[in-house]
Design brief:
alpha+beta; Immunoglobulin-like; TIM Barrel
């Protein structure tokens, strides 16, 4: 999806401006048309929505300034220089209301700029979501060049100033504390806001993918940043992937295991975006933090290629009275490959879980191209964050739950480590945190 460089404004579209647009668009199309990931061209971002008054509510000019560019100049350039690729005049676009969920594509900012709590993503029923997002802090290494030591706390003036969200700082923090503890230290700010962003995007994408057949795709705002800031990005200014980036590696997998609670019943869905039918076994469990199973359900499943199915359900009566001491676990295991896909849920907000020290342990080994961190735990360890002090952007796996008595393998990109680093160097800089 490639936007032409027009966004959220009116643009002149006659005379020399029209000609400049044609020249610029021709150069861009010829430069990018052979890129293997290019799916379509889009005339602008939110300009049509601005003109309908559906975005800001202000009065609009008598003519849609820029319309000639989006409906004549740009599609003509695409037809001439990249005729095999679709052109879409604006985003969002479709119907009298360009953001109509029943037609075309939709930008869902009703949650972030409206109701605030990401659980409301599940009330949206679009055909294609081409923009939505939730904000979080950059990681610690991005903050360090921008802060003096006395500024390194969650509510410092510098932290408040480096805030792109435009919500008011207390409102932004409140979006996080609805689910996670109040941040006090700078590390708290990073950890809790990034976990909240990860859960927000997972909630949205899981929901939209379960709507397969009604909703046929998602794109979120945004990938990266150009300064140390609290924003909607999933990679920060220092190149550090946030918790949401690592969550994406799982919730955008072509095969998705996704759980939904309806009252006192847990339902499991499997989304299959591959071109092959899949068969396997789904297991749903209620587990306490020591590893005991309170109840479970197993089902043999079959999901057609490019399909979605609700495959199993589990009543949650056995969790009554223990809601803050259990987690819900779902796993799909494929018959053909033994590959596994997981999902977790809680019955209370993460901040209200009664967690004990899980006894987290780490073993580091060096392998060709990467290093491995083998993490083991005695009790349940949610949201395990691993980082190397002073070395951003090296974690290839992160922020995962570890079930009692189980293990996870986290990987480090050795190509981004200082030259000559040994396993002892990694151990010396390794910092672990769990909720």
């Amino acid at each position: 999806w490639q936007d032409f460089p027009y966004a959220c404004a009116y643009y002149p579209d006659t005379g020399e401006y029209e000609e400049a647009s044609r020249i610029e668009a021709t150069a861009a199309v010829r430069r990018l048309r052979n890129h293997p990931s290019l799916a379509m061209w889009c005339g602008n971002n939110e300009c049509h929505q601005v003109h309908t008054g559906k975005w800001t509510g202000e009065s609009v000019p008598p003519r849609y300034l820029g319309e000639r560019l989006y409906h004549e100049v740009l599609p003509e350039v695409v037809r001439k220089h990249d005729p095999g690729r679709p052109y879409w005049p604006s985003s969002p676009f479709g119907g009298d209301d360009p953001n109509d969920p029943n037609t075309g594509d939709r930008h869902n900012w009703d949650v972030w700029h409206g109701r605030g709590d990401w659980v409301h993503y599940t009330e949206d029923r679009p055909r294609f979501v081409s923009e939505f997002g939730f904000a979080s802090s950059c990681a610690l290494e991005a903050w360090k060049p921008a802060m003096e030591p006395q500024d390194m706390y969650a509510h410092s003036p510098v932290a408040r100033w480096h805030d792109k969200t435009g919500k008011g700082y207390e409102t932004y923090i409140g979006f996080t504390t609805a689910h996670f503890p109040e941040p006090v230290t700078l590390e708290d700010l990073v950890y809790y806001t990034q976990l909240n962003q990860a859960e927000a995007l997972k909630c949205g994408v899981d929901h939209y993918r379960r709507l397969k057949g009604r909703c046929w795709g998602t794109m979120f705002w945004q990938l990266n940043d150009c300064w140390p800031v609290q924003s909607w990005s999933v990679i920060d200014y220092a190149g550090d992937p946030k918790a949401a980036y690592h969550a994406m590696q799982r919730f955008y997998n072509p095969i998705l295991m996704s759980m939904v609670r309806e009252d006192d019943v847990l339902h499991a869905y499997v989304v299959n975006d591959t071109a092959k039918d899949i068969r396997g076994t789904v297991t749903l469990r209620i587990e306490n933090f020591e590893g005991a199973s309170l109840d479970k359900e197993k089902a043999v499943v079959f999901v057609k290629a490019n399909g979605v199915s609700r495959v199993a359900s589990l009543h949650l009566h056995e969790a009554e009275g223990h809601e803050d001491q259990v987690f819900l676990y779902g796993r799909l295991r494929l018959d053909e490959t033994n590959e596994e896909y997981e999902d977790f849920q809680f019955l209370v907000e993460p901040k209200d879980l009664k967690l004990a020290d899980p006894g987290l342990k780490a073993e580091v080994t060096l392998e060709q191209g990467w290093a491995s961190i083998r993490l083991t735990t005695r009790w349940f360890a949610p949201y395990v964050w691993a980082r190397l002090e002073g070395v951003p952007g090296v974690m290839m796996t992160n922020y995962m739950h570890i079930r009692p008595g189980k293990e996870r393998i986290y990987h480090i990109n050795r190509g981004r480590l200082p030259e000559g680093w040994t396993a002892d160097d990694i151990r010396g800089r390794l910092r672990l945190r769990t909720l």
